[in-house]
Amino acid sequence: MKKERIFQVILTDDEHRLVEIVKRLKEADQPVLDVYSPVPVEEVEHILEVPESRLPKAGFWIGFTMGAAALLVMIWMMRYSYPIVFGGKPYIPWPSFVPPTFESTVLTSAYGMGIIMFIVSKLVPMMKAHPIDPRVTDYMFAILLDENADENFLKQLANEFSAEYKKVNAAEDVVIT
Amino acid sequence: MNLEHANHRAWKKPLQLSIGLMALGLVAAIIGYFVDGHVHFVSSWLTYSVFFLGMGLAATFFIAVHTIAHGGWQVAFLRVPEALMIFVFPAGVILLLSLLDIHTLYHWSHEELINPDSEYYDPLIAHKSKWLNVPFFSFRSVTYIVLWMIFAYWLRNLSQKLDETGNLRYWQRIQFVSGLFLAVFAVTSTLAAFDWVMSTDPHWYSTLFGWYLFAVVWVSMIAVIVLWVLWLRKHGINPHIRDEHLHDLGKYMFGFSIFWAYLWYSQYMLHWYANIPEETAWHLLRFKEHRILFYLIIVLNFAIPFFALMSRSAKRKPWVLTFVAFSILTGHVLEMWLLVQPSVYHAHYLDHWTFSIVDLGVLSFMAGLFIFVTMRSLRRAPIVPEKHPYFKESLTYKT
Q1: Interchain contact, B275 vs A87, CB within 8 Å
Q2: Nearest Cβ partner of A96 from B273, B310, B312?
Q3: Of B24, B29, B223, B335, which residue is most buried, by most CB within 10 angstroms?
Q4: Are residues A43 and A59 in the same domain?
Q5: Listing from the earlier edge strand, what are the strands of the sheet with A141-145?
Q6: What is the signed CA dihedral for A62, A64, A66, A72, rounded to 10 degrees?
Q7: Is the predicted ipTM greater than 0.85, yes or no?
Q8: A56–chain B Cβ distance below 8 A for any pair
């Protein structure tokens, strides 16, 4: 069993309230660890000053490398490994290399980003999910806070926005940094 | 009407620039007429009037397509495409004037080519003479331009009425007119490209040429919008333009540069692969005589926008957008030159001519007129359509 610890959680089912609550928490300097949401809410990222994702860059470089590799493989095959003239075209008929290069760029970039997402979110086959609250996978937005956050303030805040406050035991590495 | 922005002192610069460009351009064009000759002179007017007319048409399409799709993001700078749309009027007149010299521009217009008894009889052109003959061609040219003028005037007029009254009945009418325009545009844009540009070489054909020319003028029009929007924001004339608008315009430039490259490649690759003489001759002429230009337009119109605008932060930086917009505009001007002029000189049994003083003259005259007309119509209406139903959305939306 993994090491567990106590977290404080505020749950709400409205994204506008979520944004307001996160704003207030940030103003009060409460240690917000993570926000779980079934739909992307971009404003939360801006408020929490989450650094810009490096995923697009990874996607670009994977696509670039693999596209270049595909192009080189085609050139090597058509020119050096088994040179053959067909249709009167030169050994390196670059216009006909463009579609395969494009396809391999797009394919590897998409798969690469998907796989990176799996690695970052620690998703492996047969793994069981341990959501902070089962409703987070459906309609609830959850704000995860450290144990040492001001409990009274959180309760009052939850009350003000008719949100739910609770303490949960969860694995220590539930927070992805 | 709130026309305070019209008195902003920043307007002085584009006014001086446009008048300077027009005067210099006219002088250079007249000098060029004597240096480069009549044929080059006329074909320059054809090249650039089609280009600028196309940009005006693309601006009309921009408004129509966003209206029909209920897009709201463009409303904060809607006046810019509306102003560009007005350029259909002067460019259409200039194009019709240059088409008057039809025998210089289009060699299919010579009667002896379709006369079976003549020694110049050309069966391929005779076969196409049901479509390519002078009366029908003139009728079509006038029809396209008049239709586009009507729609440009109509949309502008309705937009101003909506702005004055705030009556949503006008908004519904704009939607109706936009739908009608899109149907007309779908047919006329392709046929106009076939008629004015593709028929300079009547033996050659490409079925996607209409879209290809549309991609050229559309992405150039987006680049012009970007430049105006950045200028209006820099001088605080339109304070409603936010980074989000720049971001979306950047996406437009990025996406449609790829769209252009896709069409360019689709056309080139099929012709290259099939290797049929009547199709490859067109590419061969351009590749042999203007090889640097042939590659340069791919760099300017595809490689630079593709790599410069790829990241999110680059799409929000004014200097990157300006740089890419100028790259795209230069690229597409050269591209228009490459589409029209080699065919024209080839039809006149000339081996070669280059981008020269007459091109620069006509181009700068048209550019000056373009700036002048756009500026004039920007100053004559409120800078933002405050009563547009999507105005608020444009101020608050997020990308």
Answers
A1: yes
A2: B273
A3: B223
A4: no
A5: A32-36, A141-145, A4-12, A164-171
A6: -160
A7: no
A8: yes
**Of A120, A143, A165, which marks where a domain is finished?**
A120
At a CB cut-off of 8 Å and minimum separation 6, what does A42 contact? B398
Looking at the structure of chain A, the number of domains it has is 2
CB contact A88 to B (< 8 Å): yes
Residues A111 and A131 placed together within one structural domain of the fold: no
Burial (Cβ within 10 Å: 0-12, 13-18, ≥19) of residue B331: buried
Residue B78 identity: L
Question: How many other CB atoms are found less than 10 A from the CB of residue B340?
Answer: 23
Residues A134 and A100 in one domain: no
Provide the shortest C-alpha distance from residue B311 to chain A (in Å): 8
* Residues B30-51 pLDDT 10s: 999 999 899 999 999 999 999 9
User: B269 vs A98: CB contact, 8 Å cut-off?
Assistant: yes
The pLDDT assigned to A173 comes to 67
End-of-domain residue from the set A120, A136, A162: A120
Q: What is the pLDDT of residue B7?
A: 85
Cα B107 versus chain centre, distance = 24
Interchain pair A52, B311: CB under 8 A: no
CA B272 to chain A, closest CA, distance in angstroms equals 8
pLDDT tens digit string along B275-321?
898 899 999 999 999 999 999 999 999 999 999 999 888 999 999 99
CA–CA separation, B178 and B184 (whole Å): 10
Yes or no, beta carbons of A95 and B310 under 8 Å apart: no
Mean pLDDT of B16-34: 95
Q: Are residues A68 and A83 in the same domain?
A: yes
Q: Are residues A67 and A114 in the same domain?
A: yes
Judge: A95–B269 Cβ closer than 8 Å, yes or no: yes
Q: Please report residues of B whose CB lies closer than 8 A to that of A96.
A: 269, 273
Q: Tell me if A22 sits within 8 A of A137, measured CB to CB.
A: no
Are A95 and B273 within 8 A, CB to CB? yes
CATH (domain of A145): 3.30.70.260
